[in-house]
Design brief:
mainly beta; Elongation Factor Tu (Ef-tu), domain 3
Length: 491
């Protein structure tokens, strides 16, 4: 029977932007399946009520990646690792990839369909807007939308990063015998500078009927339970949950009107979804005092924002150990990437640059980091018009390749095929955070990505790749080139 063995990191938390290295050492004591192993990073969400005197509420929280203009790109879990190294004590270094975050983001963009990304949203550290009800709910809370059981926040929900998503060697190593390789060492540099919290229960995410003045008192003499004048056909359309703190507004009514109220805070204690699709919402305490012949009409509710922050304090490596005394494989075929980062002194409109490429490299990816000073992981250049690549002074195409033209997609497909991947998505947008509805969040203009891919001829010696880029403006200020290199690991 397989066993899951946990290894704690050599370094202790809390991890910060300067203390961001995490190392795991695996002793030479058996056979492991690295393809079914992962790293757990445990965030600590600190969520405080801004006004506990009116009750302590529960808040729907998520983590976000505050990147381009705070559009909250939904990046894969692997983007939390900036650089990664895998080595053994007896066989030496296996993989050493710089800017793994940029690489993982661009591969995930093209190599996964929209449906595949949506099907793994249950484990995403930053969740996407749901297509059915247009809401965005993270993995850090359990929300009860009916009944009287209070919802709760899970402040220490681990973020799982599959080793197979970081290293292709791990994806291929269904059996690795550490008694032959010696101690395994995993070293990662975390990329958490832009990790932040977000209140997904904000009423800007609600459909208009829930925050309009479409509520009324169930009992005109008691300022507590309110009934909705509208109905919904699916409970998932409701943004309300038990334990949520809301602010209440109402219009004084009756022959002896009560004092006006504005943004009175109250915590929901019970929600009933009635047979006709309407809601009855009760609160822990009366949110106003009503005298004789006094009531409130045209009641509306809205959200209350918490005070929140996040830190990552703990990391562990979870390996799947196999019930074998030795591996039945004597070699593992895999591929890796070498990285070359280029930052130009000033932005240029046209660029010609030559790069050395390993002779064994059979493909390359060129991306355009946005906001290099701020550490963006996205590849963005809206003004890139065309490009042309030459290998050892031989053109790889018979014409300039225009971005988003058929030949551009053909080169993407050929490059990914050479890297043993599939081109599954031509919508080059990283999904964003809440933008009014699902479709808008999926196609946020600021999050449109661009990349260049091409297969390369393998040669017995180093070769030279000439890159010629043409842009509509002086927007070419940085490049990152990932060179795909096939390798064989043998005992």
């Amino acid at each position: 029977m397989n066993q899951e063995i946990k290894f704690q990191s050599v370094q202790g938390g809390a991890f910060t932007t300067s203390q961001n290295r995490i190392t795991f050492r695996v002793p030479a004591d058996g056979v492991y399946d690295l393809s079914k192993s992962w790293v757990n990073l445990t965030p600590e969400l600190s969520v405080e009520d801004s006004n506990p005197s009116t009750g302590v509420g529960v808040y729907s929280m998520d983590l976000i990646w505050a990147d381009i203009d705070d559009k909250q790109p939904q990046c894969p879990n692997g983007s939390l690792v900036k650089n990664g190294l895998l080595r053994t004590s007896l066989m030496g270094q296996i993989e050493n990839i710089r800017r793994m975050d940029q690489l993982r983001n661009i591969i995930d963009l093209y190599n996964k369909s929209t449906h595949e990304k949506r099907s793994t949203a249950y484990s995403a550290f930053s969740n996407t807007v749901q297509p059915t009800q247009g809401q965005q709910v993270g993995i850090y809370c359990d929300l009860n939308k009916t009944g009287n059981v209070k919802s709760r926040i899970n402040p220490q929900t681990p973020i799982r990063i599959q080793l197979a998503d970081l290293f292709d060697f791990c994806a291929q190593a269904i059996e690795i015998d550490t008694t032959k390789t010696g101690e395994l060492t995993f070293e990662f540099e975390l990329n958490i500078a832009r990790l932040d919290t977000d209140h997904e229960g904000d009423d800007s995410h609600w459909t208009y009927v829930f925050k309009n003045a479409d509520w009324s008192l169930a009992d005109p003499t008691i300022a507590n339970t309110i009934n909705s004048a509208f109905n919904v056909t699916n409970l998932s359309q409701s943004p309300l949950f038990v334990g949520q703190k809301v602010k209440i507004n109402g219009t004084p009514g009756g022959s002896s009107p009560p004092p006006p109220i504005s943004d009175v805070e109250a915590v929901i204690s019970n929600i009933v979804w009635n047979d006709d699709g309407t809601f009855s919402v009760s609160f822990e305490n009366d949110w106003a005092t009503l005298g004789t012949n006094a009531t409130y009409t045209d009641i509306s509710i809205g959200s209350v924002a918490p005070i929140s922050s996040v830190s990552i304090n703990f990391g562990e490596l979870v390996l799947t150990r196999l019930p074998l005394t030795e591996s039945s494989f004597d070699q593992i075929e895999y591929s890796t990437f070498s990285t070359e980062e280029v930052t130009l002194g000033s932005a240029q409109q046209n660029l010609q640059r030559q790069f050395q490429v390993e002779g064994s490299a059979d493909a390359c990816i060129i991306i355009f980091p946005y906001d290099t000073a701020g550490g963006s992981i996205l590849s963005k250049n809206d003004d890139l018009n065309s490009y042309r690549l030459r290998l050892d002074n031989v053109d790889l195409t018979d014409r300039d390749v225009e971005v988003n033209a058929p030949l551009h997609y053909d080169r993407l497909n050929l490059g990914m095929t050479q890297m043993k991947m599939r081109l599954k998505n031509l919508t080059a947008h990283v999904p964003g955070g809440w933008a009014g509805n699902y479709l808008t969040s999926q196609h946020t203009p600021e999050l449109k990505q661009v990349a260049i891919m091409t297969p390369l001829e393998q040669k017995p010696r180093e070769k030279y790749l000439q890159v010629n880029l043409a842009s509509n403006s002086a927007s070419l200020d940085a490049l990152t080139i990932f060179k795909h290199i096939p390798r064989v690991f043998s005992y």
